[in-house]
Amino acid sequence: MSVNATVPGPSAGLDFDMLAVEDVSRHFGRRRALSHISFQASRGTILGLLGPNGAGKSTMLALLGTLLRPTSGVIRYGARAHADSSPALRAAIGVLGHDLFLYPELTALENLAFFAALCGVAEPGGAATSALERAGLADRANDPVSSFSRGMRQRVALERALIHVPRLALLDEPFTGLDDASTAALVARLRSLRDAGAIVILATHDLDLAEGLLDHAVFLRDGRMVESLARPEALRATYRTVMTRGRA
Amino acid sequence: MPKWFTPAAVVCALMFAASPLVIANAPYESTMGLVQKIFYYHMPSAWMFLVAAIVCGVSSVRYLVSGSPRQDRLAWAAAELTFLFGALALVTGPLWARKAWGVWWQWDVRLTASLMGWMVSCAYLLLRKYGGPGSDKLAAGLALFGMANVPFIYISVNYWRTIHPATSVVPTLPVSMGGPLWFCVTTFLLLFVLLLKMRVRLEEQRARLDSLYLSLDE
Amino acid sequence: MFLRSVWLVLRKDLTVEVRSMEIALTTVFFAVSAVMVFAFALVREGQAPEDGAAGILWIAIAFAGTLALGRTFERERQSETLRALLLAPAPRPAIYVGKLLGILALLSAAEAMLVPLVAFLFQAPFLAHPVWLAAILVSGTAGFAAVGTLFAAMLVRVRSRDVLLPVLLYPITVPVIIAGVRATAALLQPEVDFAIVRFWMALLIAFDVVFVTLALWTFEPLMTD
């Protein structure tokens, strides 16, 4: 095994400074989910995938997470191309899916400890406990996840995705179900991830929350990239402009 | 005129010629009488069933290894022909068995193994029809497992006594019967190749249509 | 790392199951119902046909096994946790082995209930050779579950998965059913011919080896789309 199980933190798994998506398309039969997408993100960036439902944001995240292969085009993780999805590469990626990837019968602590251990974190129990503290759910550690509200589950799911301190964090609609306080905590969490040198890819349709958070915004519509902007400002206005562009 | 017309016409002519000319003029087998002539259809169907199953299995494995959609299309086409020729063999077999053994169905090794193989081809087609997207890989896995399963089915069923005539009778047949038999095998083989090619072509056209739809979108 | 991942997945599955007992209880009850249906169909004048007990036992195992496989992977599908397992840096064959062992544990528990029940209802001397019987049950169940776990895992992504699982599984596992039934029936004879039992055992073990190897080899390519 190439995964170094004893050292937690960003040094576990494959090391890369740059994520590059080069002319990537993905079809499902006759349906085009994504076509000719290209963008780059270097470490210490928060990149937003913005667009309405069905624009291909989740497919893009699945491709980046090695769950799907592109029909054409390449995704590069540093020098490594997509084709060789290895445990070392997966160890560097954390995914928060639209479905939460949690076992409802298990407690929050058990869920986190299980995934921490599976990801090769040195002390799964300790990592899970401190993750729950970060989520503000330390007092509910031994309750089954099925008894949690949607917002609480979302917070646990986020900590699950980040439990092995991934170099690349892929988050699908992370603000769903969160109240204002949790949202602020999440925004702070994402900023600290960026400052620690991670690449954060965020798929969302919630422009107000993404405002001011993104270093780079990729606008998707019907599987196509309509705009890619560095340091986007006035997201809502920009969004309206680029999304209606080219439409009668 | 479509380019498959001539080969199709030739195969049709040969198939039509088989029954009235070649088989009718083959000698009358004394104990079995007229029913023996089913054999000229039964054995070639059974052989093509086997050939189709092998083509399906091999191309499925190649699809799993290489991921090439060509192999996937070939496997699908071969699976449909496995179903078709298997059905022919399984219908003509009992017709012959009723006269030869006195029963329609006998749980002997070859019959049972053929039935199981045919069931796998049914399962394959059901999966492709109702599985939706993502079922192509699974279908290839099924074909691989079906192939690996053949010796196990054979050995497990063989523990019951077999009463199927052994394959070794074929070379010992008199020329007057062997000639028509080989004629039928050849025409069935040509039919198999023709159907396989046409079926693969259909899938290729479909794939091209899909990519045209996709490029229309660009 | 491989064994550790296997153990983690297995322990997780057992914890979930012990907590809810859903699959264990429904599977056992389903198996018992199947035994009843076959009893009503086959018993004449209060007597089960010869070898009937062996057949009924294995049919119940096959039916219950399909149910347990379907439910186990339905559970992994509900909040897409199977994707999470595949995303983890653990070797993917280890996830297959973990799930397989979980299913085996579940089915072994179901069999532990089923065997005395069938023995009791059909006056079958199942417990005359307990070690042989256990060996036959374990190797037969392993072969069945080895194919079933792979198919059920792949069917998670597929439409009509509930009905397709038995459709794909039964034709492939026919040798397991034949060998299991014949070996068990041989054990039930007053004078057991161990040559026959050993023959079927050898076939079952060969089946297990071939199909587990194939499943380990194909699990990774079959699970990435």
Short description:
The complex is a heterotrimer of chains A (248), B (218) and C (225). Chain A has 248 residues and is α/β, with parallel strands linked by helices.
Strand tally of chain B is: 0
User: Which class do the helix and strand fractions of chain A yield?
Assistant: alpha/beta
Q: Span from first to last CA of chain B? A: 34 Å
Q: Helices and strands of chain A, in N-to-C order? A: EEEHEEHEHHHEHEHEEH
Write down the secondary-structure element order of chain B.
Answer: HHHHHHH
Shape of chain B: flat
Global mean pLDDT of chain B: 84
How many DSSP helices of chain A?
8
Can you tell me the residue ranges of chain A where pLDDT is under 50 for at least 5 consecutive residues? 1-11
Rg of chain B, Cα atoms, Å? 20 Å
Examine the coordinates and then state which fold CATH places here, giving the name of the CATH topology of chain B. Answer: Four Helix Bundle (Hemerythrin (Met), subunit A)
Helix content of chain B: over 70%
Shape label of chain A: globular
For the largest beta-sheet of chain A, the strand count, sense and barrel status come to: 6 strands, mixed
Instruction: Give the name of the CATH architecture of chain B.
Output: Up-down Bundle
Our measurement of the CA-to-CA distance between the termini of chain A, rounded to an integer number of angstroms, reads 55 Å
